[in-house]
């Protein structure tokens, strides 16, 4: 807190935007001490949305009510979070709804994709998981689903690092010691992973607006996800992707088998997802945010 105060004294900002739970709760009141305009982006409720600790949840809700009293504008990335703040927390601050940080336009691999040769992926059915290796992201469910699939020469490729700073239950590395499972760890850029994907899987139980899902759609890859906040904003089941309720592993298995066997079903999913790409364009979202900044600064004057 003292370090934050020093930053404010040194820089004297006119406008402050915060992201994620800790800055959202701490920075907003401090910013108002220095008469700055404030925006807070709710990038999802994280593990708090699925915690069994009711007292912790009530405590954080109280912090939200206090801190957001000092917020001039909220940016939500999904309608579920917006409803929670308005209905549960009774926070009626002005808001804008956007699709997260958006994604860059599709990138084609110019160089030879060395992953294909290294892991013998040319003739296999490749399922891609992109995200932190924590329990909430559905790592265990992804592995269970993969084991049940009756597809010859199948691969499950994990691109993501272990998050030791998370409050989530830790995942054992032993889970990845199974035929066909490939663990790539954290990658700076994921476009080469998407370049070799036949299917993207998102069995996460909590999200804001999943960037990896938007990237998969942007790269023309069929997607299978749990129907959660963020996902339900953009995916309509059997129209532009597949969604099932959390834990319905057998339904996921059946849908993946259908995508693998039925080329018409697969092509329809991809054709219907084309309309989403403009909504995800990072350039469009940046312009929207800058326009919001301008209006808030003008309102101060």
> Main sheet?
6 strands, parallel
Net shape = elongated
DSSP helical segment count:
13
Measured as a percent range, the helix fraction is 40-55%
Head-to-tail CA distance between termini:
28 Å
Structural class: alpha/beta
Content of β-strand: 5-15%
Please provide the count of β strands. Answer: 10
Order of helices and strands: HEHEHEHEHEHEEHEHEHEHHHH
Mean of pLDDT: 90
Are there runs of 5+ residues with pLDDT below 50, and where?
Answer: none
Radius of gyration, in Å, reads: 21 Å
**Quaternary structure annotation:** single chain
As laid out across the biggest beta sheet, the strand order is 7-6-5-8-9-10
Commentary on this structure:
It is a single chain. The protein has 301 residues and is an alpha/beta fold. It is built from 13 helices and ten strands. The strands form two sheets. A six-stranded parallel sheet has the order 7-6-5-8-9-10, with helices on both faces. β1, α2 and β2 form a beta-alpha-beta unit. The longest helix is centred in the last third of the chain and has 19 residues. The radius of gyration is 21 Å and the shape is elongated.
Q: Main attributes?
A:
10 strands; 42% helix; single chain; 13 helices
Task: Quickly describe the structure.
The chain has 301 residues and is of the alpha/beta class.
Helix and strand topology:
Elements: H1 2-11, E1 15-19, H2 21-33, E2 37-42, H3 54-67, E3 73-76, H4 79-88, E4 95-97, H5 114-118, E5 125-130, H6 139-148, E6 154-159, E7 181-183, H7 191-195, E8 199-202, H8 211-218, E9 223-226, H9 231-234, E10 242-244, H10 249-261, H11 263-272, H12 277-280, H13 282-300
Parallel strand pairs: 1-2, 2-3, 3-4, 5-6, 5-8, 6-7, 8-9, 9-10
């Amino acid at each position: 807190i003292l370090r934050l105060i020093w930053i404010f004294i040194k820089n004297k900002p006119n406008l402050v935007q915060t992201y994620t739970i800790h800055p959202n709760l701490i920075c907003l009141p401090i910013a108002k001490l220095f008469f700055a305009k404030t925006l807070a982006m709710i990038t999802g409720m994280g593990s708090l949305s699925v915690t069994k600790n009711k007292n912790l949840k009530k405590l954080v809700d109280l912090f939200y009510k206090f801190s957001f009293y000092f917020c001039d504008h909220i940016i939500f990335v999904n309608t579920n979070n917006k409803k929670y703040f308005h209905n549960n927390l009774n926070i009626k601050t002005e808001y804008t709804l956007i699709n997260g940080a958006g994604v860059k336009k599709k990138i084609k691999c110019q160089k030879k994709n060395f992953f294909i040769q290294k892991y013998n992926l040319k003739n296999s059915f490749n399922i891609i998981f992109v995200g932190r290796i924590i329990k909430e992201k559905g790592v265990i469910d992804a592995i269970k689903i993969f084991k049940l699939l009756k597809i010859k020469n199948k691969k499950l490729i994990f691109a993501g690092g272990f998050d030791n700073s998370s409050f989530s239950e830790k995942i054992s590395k032993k889970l990845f010691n199974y035929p066909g499972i490939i663990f790539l760890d954290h990658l700076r850029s994921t476009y080469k992973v998407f370049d070799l994907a036949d299917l993207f899987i998102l069995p996460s139980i909590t999200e804001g607006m999943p960037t990896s899902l938007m990237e998969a759609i942007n790269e023309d890859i069929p997607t299978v996800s749990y129907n959660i906040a963020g996902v339900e904003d953009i995916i309509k089941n059997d129209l532009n992707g597949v969604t099932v309720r959390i834990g319905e592993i057998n339904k996921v298995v059946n849908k993946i088998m259908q995508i693998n066997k039925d080329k018409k079903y697969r092509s329809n999913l991809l054709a219907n997802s084309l309309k989403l790409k403009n909504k995800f364009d990072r350039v469009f979202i940046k312009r929207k945010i800058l326009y919001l900044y301008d209006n808030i600064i003008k309102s101060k004057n």
